[in-house]
Amino acid sequence: MLRFRYITKAKTSPRGKDAILIHAMPEDAAMAERIVNAILGENDGIRYACWLAEDPEKVFAEYTEPEMSEMQIYLPLITERYLETAQRYPDFKMEAVSARGLFVMPAILSPSLIPAYTARFGNIHVTVCNSSDIGEDLRKQLHSLLMDPQLKERIRRHAFTRRLFLSYRKKDRAEALKILKSIHDTKEGAAAETWYDDFLIPGRDFNNEISEAMASSEAVVLSVTPNLMEIHPDGEANYVRAHEYPDAVRTGKPVIPVEAVEVKRDEIISAFPNIPPFIRLGDQKLLEDALKNIPAEKAAEIPDDKKPYLTYLLGMAFYMGFRVEKDVARAIRYLQDAADCNVPEAAEQLFKTYKEGYEVTRDTAEALKWQIRTFEIYKDREPDEKNVRRMKQILFDEGMAGVLSLNGRVVESNEYCQDLIDAIDGIEPEDESQMIIWKAEALLNQGDIDFGNPLPNRSDEVNLQYMLQMTKEAEKCLEDYYGEEDDYYWRVSSMIQSSYSDYERKEKNLLRANQYMMVAVKRMRQSLQIWPVYENRFKMAQMLTNLSGCRYLLSFEKGQSSVMQRNYREDSVMFSNEAIKIYTQLYNERKEPSCADNLAMCYLNKSLAVSDRSEAKAMVQKGLEVIAMLENDYPGEGQGTKRKLLHAL
Prior knowledge:
By secondary structure, this protein is α/β, with parallel strands linked by helices. It is 59% helix and 8% strand. The chain has helices at 29-40, 56-62, 80-87, 94-99, 114-121, 134-145, 149-158, 173-184, 206-216, 239-250, 265-271, 284-292, 307-320, 328-340, 344-356, 364-380, 385-397, 400-406, 410-425, 432-447, 460-479, 487-506, 510-530, 534-554, 562-589, 593-609, 613-633, 639-648; strands spanning 4-8, 18-23, 48-53, 73-78, 103-104, 107-108, 127-128, 162-167, 192-195, 219-224, 255-259, 279-280. α14 (328-340) crosses α15 (344-356) and α24 packs antiparallel against α25 (562-589).
């Protein structure tokens, strides 16, 4: 039986993550560790679980065992030791692993091993990793392989108007990328699929793949440089001259030669019979004319109502580098055009891009702008259960309501909550119980008023009564719930208790506030036992922080014995420690500014409750370290908490 161990970002559960089996021999453990760090170290590293076999050699003999089928990607690290071991298992084939439903993605660090690899496994495409940045090529392959297959199919079928094959020498890659950009800068080539060898699928015979790609193309773009004339030491012509160009001529494919580097044209014309006139790189008019002569794959008449979604698909193609070169700046322009035409998927992608800082400068304000745009697109659609579900997810699960409130936009947050309530009331859903619990959460969020940032033109007393009213309405709403007591039910139920606790705390009824928060924490633990997702753990950390505060304040109540005071403070420290542990893990998973800010506040709260002055000072210093980390990731964030920490210091 095969046994594996997993490694994930921030030591999170592998449940629901893309499973990558890194097959490395024991002697190559250090290199395997570098690959793991490269994969998990990315912004989206949280989505992966890297698995390693306890006995790597057994994988060669037992790759048909059921445990292998739980993996999505088989990533063998091709080294001398791997090849030596593979020789002892002649029945082991990459194709057989692929046939079991795994993507096969061999990685090799030394090109000198390619002949031995080819001799053992045939012409199976292998990713050659750059030793200075071992993860770059692997990340590209992972993003392509694990891209939503339905989205890939929609892009392949609908996004492109022409299909081109780019033929070039490997050593001319920089020039080839310039040609691709020039093609996509033209009107005729803007939506052209441009296949080149970056799209070879790992684990497949590259000769067959190249032939298939050329056969499905409508024209071949030839990168013309002096390297086309090179002959290998064995006397063989290079692959472009010996195979790709002759195949293009034989199959009648139009050839567009683009002179990327000045060449001796007579030599090229002699070596490449019937080659058409050259187009110098940068001559966009001639390139436009050449592309215009290639019949478009699809009819030019696309219905106006379909164009924005096709623009979104084209943007995603450039964003992921799928069938075109990866070009995030170009992708963002297409995505913005599509979002402006009410394509919610485009607005959502822009939100994620700016939130995660994926190949753009991380920008929380820009991210929030596109998150709001996504919500508004769904809000303005004809209300149905699917659209209402997305509104709820954006507002609560993805944190839009909370971020608005934290940024002083409480009125907007409340208005969007009301939009959700109105949308819920406006439909007749199949699952009414689900809508009841969504409405309860919306009511709670309307009443969740930070009194440092209350609703305008209202006194604290009016705001406090509004909080109580919304909480009671949410509780009444939940009384009508008849569905399963799942994680979401327990989460909303705990939030009701937490809201009552906040009310009692504002009214200075600390014992009642403490009792409500104890119930809230207990119910939140039940939610976490069912589904320990990020949002539930974040909510738990908030409740633990509030409970810690209640315990600390109770230690000052009149009539307390010294023993009770000490017990309350010890409880406060205990709950702070639990919250700190959760916030630390959450920030390692996602660099969310609210998470770091709350973590720093936890250290400040703990500093108040500990009895030792030097320990209290150390807690404040830890809080300042967290704020420094936050400022590095998000300049300008956390200044209010920083002032409080400096004051305490």
